[in-house]
Amino acid sequence: MGRYFGTDGARGRANDTLTLDMAVKIGQYLGWYYGKENKRHAKILIGKDTRLSSDMFEMGLAAGATSTGAVVYLLGVCPTPSVSFLIQKEQFDCGIMVSASHNPFHDNGIKLFNGEGCKMDPAIEALIEDYIDDKSEIEIAVNEKIGHTISWDEGLELYESWLKSVVDIDLNGMNIALDLANGSATSCAAETLSALGATVEVIHSAPNGININTKCGSTHPQELQRMMKEGNYHVGFAFDGDADRLIAVDEDGNLIDGDHTMYICGCYMHEKGILHDDVVVTTVMSNLGLYHALTAKGIKYEQTAVGDKYVFECMREHGYSVGGEQSGHIIFNEHENTGDGLMTALKLLEIMVNTKKSLKELSEDLFIYPQLLINTPVKDKHKAMEDPELLKVVDEVARELGDEGRILVRPSGTEPLVRVMVEAKTDELCEQYVNQVIDFINAKGL
């Protein structure tokens, strides 16, 4: 982990831990670095989500990049995966997404992509950090070398057209409910599904800068679940703030999370003979029930550390077809380098249309073990994770659970928290074991 960049870009409270000055310097360094590499004006793409501070950071990044000679294309409000896709399609040197994903509106983030549309090399992020900390100098552009910006509305149209060409299905007669989280999905989700023939009803599609992710979207799908129970819809989809992940809801209002989605897609691709090496890639946070269900279908799995970055690295190294996270980041390796909520929705719809089955039917062989995840604040998350007494308590719980459950304790990637997660046969057991660990952390004052 760098000084400013974590596993998913630089993230923090706007104008507090993430500042306009940092944005300007990130833009300057990228404009200079790629200009020098290619001996021409760097070509940089910037997208943003709907939070209040996104305009400020977009402008700061663009100002910085143009000051070192870059030509900056402004995509406006868009899903994070559209930036990754368009970098590759239109041969940008790099791309930037201004978003803090599922975080509250007062946070923001600056996520960097390289020329392949993948997450930026940490070595380049380290060079940017040195520049932010005034440990290096770069050349500012003068005269005709100063760059300029281009408002690029066509970019989103290219992305939508591509999605419709990849998943070419007729959704006539399909009734779909969408929760757009007052975020990036408002830019294209309803239009894309309507264009394929679906009847679409949307909620949380009026962003005002501060309502992104507020009691809505993939982290708070309760209203969508209620809508599914009361209305007459075939399926519901809830996106997160920057639309790179998706939680679905079946016709009875049951949640279809990333584990369900990986199961449904993995089984479908396995039956079609297009699941490379018959492997699905998950993180260690996936439910024990997913592993049991995949094994029963003759499908193998690989586990990675938490973070879609690690899932993608494993998939790319071995050529695996599908992988993702329980939280709804799903990557389809054939098409994209990153999770994409809209692509995931289209893939689920494709399977529903082709099998003539509902999401409930498609996931009926999957038993999800009860799971409890509690975040507990600590003074130093890394020191806490190295505490021998805490590790001993965690080992004891793991021994007691045996094959009928598991415990996972890990530091948060972005906050001073330790996450304690237990899966077991009953909710009571989950609670008992999670509390055992948290009580120990609190008693010891870690």
Description:
- By secondary structure, the chain is of the alpha/beta class.
- The chain has three domains: 5-152, Alpha-D-Glucose-1,6-Bisphosphate, Chain A, domain 3; 158-362, 3-Layer(aba) Sandwich (Alpha-D-Glucose-1,6-Bisphosphate, Chain A, domain 3), CATH 3.40.120; 371-444, 2-Layer Sandwich (TATA-Binding Protein), CATH 3.30.310.50.
- The chain is built from 15 helices and 19 strands.
- The strands form four sheets. A seven-stranded mixed sheet has the order 1-2-6-5-3-4-7, with helices on both faces. Strands 9-8-10-11-12 form a five-stranded mixed sheet, sandwiched between helices.
- Helix 9 (288-296) links the parallel strand 13 (279-283) and strand 14 (300-304).
- Helix 1 packs across helix 4, helix 8 crosses helix 11 and helix 14 runs antiparallel to helix 15 (427-444).
- The radius of gyration is 22 Å and the shape is globular.
- It starts with a strand and ends with a helix.
- InterPro entries: A-D-PHexomutase_a/b/a-I, A-D-PHexomutase_a/b/a-I/II/III, A-D-PHexomutase_a/b/a-II, A-D-PHexomutase_a/b/a-III, A-D-PHexomutase_C, A-D-PHexomutase_C_sf, A-D-PHexomutase_CS, Alpha-D-phosphohexomutase_SF.
- It catalyses: alpha-D-glucosamine 1-phosphate = D-glucosamine 6-phosphate.
